[in-house]
Amino acid sequence: MTATLQKIQLARLAHARSGDKADWVDFGLFAWNATGYAVLAREVTAQRVAEHFAPWLPGRVECWPLPNILAIKLVLHDALQGGGARNLRLDNLGKSMAAALLRMEINVSTDELAACLAAPRVGWWGDKP
Amino acid sequence: MKKSIRIGAGLGFYGDAWEPVLASIEKGGVHYIASDHLAELTLAILQKDLQRDASLGYARDVVPFLMALWPAMAQRKVRFVCNAGGLNPAGAAAAVRAAFAAKGWSARVAVVTGDDVLKEVADLAPPHMFSGAVFDAVRDRMVFANAYLGARPVISALQQGADIVITGRVADAALFLGPLAHAFNWNLGDETPATPTDLNRLAQGLAVGHLLECSGQGSGGNFGSLQAWKAIPDLAHIGYPIAEVCEDGSAIITKAPGTGGRINFDTVRQQLLYEVHNPHAYMSPDVVLDLSTVTLEDIGQDRVRMTGATGHARPEQLKVVGGYRDGFKAEVTWGFSWPDAYDKALAAVEMVKAQLADKAVPHEALFVEFPGLNSAHGALAPLPDAKALAELNEVWVRMVLRTRDKKAADGFGRLFPWMALSGPAYTCGFQGLHNSSELLGIWPALIGRQAVESRTRVEVLQT
Q1: A27, B48, B169, B264: which sits with the fewest CB atoms below 10 Å from its CB?
Q2: Does pTM top 0.80 for this prediction?
Q3: What residue numbers bound the domain in which B23 lies?
């Protein structure tokens, strides 16, 4: 057994979607399986996500773990220059911002990472030929 | 055997594709189609149409949509609910009826009105529901204010035999809850208080609506992921989601056979959490939905069973979305080629800032981003190192002026052409000489539901 810690991007272990409401960007972050969810639930906190976005958008973050669907719900405040209809950015609705979340680095042990990647996905992705 | 109803997703926004809806009608066995044409921003767009022409202000795609799909719907007795009425549901219905009359088609078209609460909002002066800002800050600039209506007027229209229901700002998911509550005679709590069982059924119905209201986003479209999106088949022929709902509210999410896309645990839950904020209390006019008790069971072959949503009593206040004039923007995008492309783009920005200062152009902000480098992720997008940055083949810079002064916005593009001959070399693709527009701020607020519901009207017209 090795306990070597490494930093990886969330994109390795999770998928995500973002959307807008007024001046908030709203994220759903999803583990592929229960093993991955245990890591996300430990590593992805409101504070860590706020620190991740702070160099760009230093707003408040809210976080709700949803173990029933192996997901974490996040909301970033003050993220759209006041709202989509007045935001001057090309991505005025923050639809690509879930990808910015997937850039976030988390700490995992080598064993944990291997276990997450080895565990099967819960969803049906087609019958194997 | 339980009775079940099949309801299919219509459009997910103003401008969406309707071929997948036809597939749901022809191959998906649906009884109802519900179609969401209104995002928060859409009312702002429709307001601009309405200012230009009082007969407009609705999502105009509803007319060609129905011209293309109504024959297939009528043949199978599929009923259609949409919020394409926008700021002018009567105008939308008039346009649909005129188009039907020209074809000699007949249909019962219901019009739902009463969501326009501009006058009530001016009287009640509700604060901004998130920032707490006072209404007087925007009072003179408000151009529309519409309450989110619930399922009740949709149910009324269907009870009166409407084939087509055209509403204004009915909440997206309520467009779906309405037909389900009508078909199963679910208790909304208007006459007799809703029991926990009633509330949980409504919660399931609302969750179904939420899964279907964004069309292809519920069936594998826009699946945000590293690599995994590539495994979703044939997005070019995506099938929009369809729900088979039982009387107890339990539902199977699926799509028409032979269509592209994917319905599985992953694609369904990405949509389940989309724009819901607090997942323990997803607010709607009819029920407050707790998603933390939902179970999604992936049964394979593009079928996912959803059960377990918990409902809590509906709120005493309804949400209003208001829009107010919020100044103007003007934007210019310009490219520079190797060598020194990035440095030249930065130099161009400084020259524009000098022009703004020299000419004392009134403005609040000059926003700058570099499409291709950082426009999606701002400061979180890692720039190439200095050497790679200097060697970039080309760099595009987008400059956007925010100003209260219309003339300043209209004149912004004029600050640029001189640079073609007198600025940094190897420029290409100047865009934006005339590219200014008015900005609308959105004012979300809460008002008492009685003030709204007492004036909601449903009118059924025979065409």
Answers
A1: B48
A2: yes
A3: 4-114+149-315
CB atoms within 10 A of CB A107: 12
Does the beta carbon of A99 lie under 8 angstroms from any beta carbon of chain B? Answer: yes
Question: Tens digit of pLDDT for each residue in B372-428?
Answer: 999 999 999 999 999 999 999 999 999 999 999 999 999 999 999 999 999 999 998
**Cα B5 to the chain's mean position, in Å?**
25
Let me know if residue B450 belongs to a domain: no
> Which residues, at least 6 apart from A120, have a Cβ–Cβ distance to it below 8 Å?
A33
A69 and B224 in contact by Cβ < 8 A?
no
Nearest to A17 among B222, B329, B439 (CB): B222
B347 and B411 share one domain: yes
Choose from B377, B400, B435 for mutation: most chain A CBs within 10 A.
B377
Chain A residues whose beta carbon lies within 8 Å of the beta carbon of residue B306: none
Distance CA B253, CA B264 (A): 9
Are B13 and B162 in a shared domain?
A: yes
Same domain, yes or no: B329 and B311: no
The shortest CB-CB distance from A15 to any of B225, B280, B367 is to B225
State whether A30 and B371 contact (CB < 8 Å): no
> DSSP class of residue B149?
B
For B223, the enclosing helix (H) or strand (E) is none
Question: Given this model, what pLDDT does residue B39 score?
Answer: 84
Q: Structural domain boundaries of chain A?
A: 7-118
